[in-house]
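Hi! If you just cloned this repository, the fastest way to understand the data is to look at a raw example. We've pasted two of them here, unedited. The first protein comes first, obviously.
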Amino acid sequence: MQYVIIGASAAGMAAAEAIRKLDSQGSIIVLSEEQDMPYFRPMLPFMISGKKKFPEMILIGQGPYQGANIDVRINSRVEALNTAGQKVYIKNGEELPYDKLLIATGSLPNIPSDIGGLESEGVFVLRTIADARAITHRAETVRHAVMLGGGLLNLKAAFALLERGLDVTLIVKSPDVLSKLMEPDDTVLIRNALNKAGMKLMTGSSVTRILSDSTGVIGVLLDNGGEIPCQMVCIGKGIRANIEFLDKSGILVDQGVVVDKFTRSNIQNVFAAGDVAVTFDQITGERIVTGLWTNAAEMGNCAGRNMAGRPSIYSGTFGILNATQVADEPFVSMGIVHTKGADYETHIAATPKTYRKLVFTPDGTRLVGALFIGDISKAGLYRYIIRERMTIKDIKSEIVNHRLHYGHFLR
């Protein structure tokens, strides 16, 4: 049996591990278009700040991958598939046959089409270790960086550059940072932390052109006619599924590869997992592409088991689960946090140092979302309640007043 996995990040490597646990003899080939061995992508901002070195991020040779006999081939960009003949076509001209194929190519950055000067020296996105190296190299010789986009990864990259001693201006088109994840009142502590760290935040603003000369970027032109001097620009405007190479493959795509509950595509022996796959939200039932490492790894594990002949159902993505920190402010968000004006029951408790938001169904009988900033000590308990879709009538008071403890689940 020859298993071929396209993509060597969270989903692809989790699938390889799952396959090897169930099939000790089959050939597992993982194809990566990058020049480096697989690594832990969420650490990229820490590499920019200098807190992590690349050897600390490498996956192969550590943990479950040590001695697992997984053939990872770098510099192996897949250009097309022949699903009828079960072959993968690699850029170097190689044709690779497969018995079972996993598409785990992840996502690509969204590049705005309405900004001029994107080709200027000193304009970056952050997706790969090569991007992180290029950003770090540029940061060694410049003073001021402009960051476009208020999403989580861009905030972390912006703070990483602050830690390197750069002046950083964050320009966000929406009225607030993290606007797809949280509502304006939810972000007060995070905005305060960014301001305290020295970041200049501009919301409700857009860049129309990146200005440059022979040295590269020298500034950005705003939609109001103003200019901000800078020597580098980082763009973080969301992601899209990496599916261009699937043209003419016969694989059904709709914003990503469409899969069933067993992570199978519409083509026999072809599976998909991670950011490239369209799945559904356990809480809302909506079809989504999540873009989160933990979700991708979980889905990849399920796909690997299915490829190895152990039927496993992927029950969908658990909302949008983030557990991280921005500007040294820890926060955890899960499920529905941004209610988008819908008729949910919400409870908010705020202090100068902490913020807690709980979102219940309109009838108040089930917890469907939670946000913790500052104090995240009990987040795991709330995650369990949401994920298990528990009816919480008997313990609602404890949930709302943050008196929940493990004893409530042992009764």
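Ok, and the second one:
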Amino acid sequence: MDIVYIRELEIRTIIGIYDWEREQQQI
């Protein structure tokens, strides 16, 4: 696997969790 791919995947996961937590708080 490419390191750049793993780095991008980590960033996407962190942003996804951040957006998910923000949506959960709005409810």
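That's it. A detail worth noticing about the second one: The chain has a mean pLDDT of 93.
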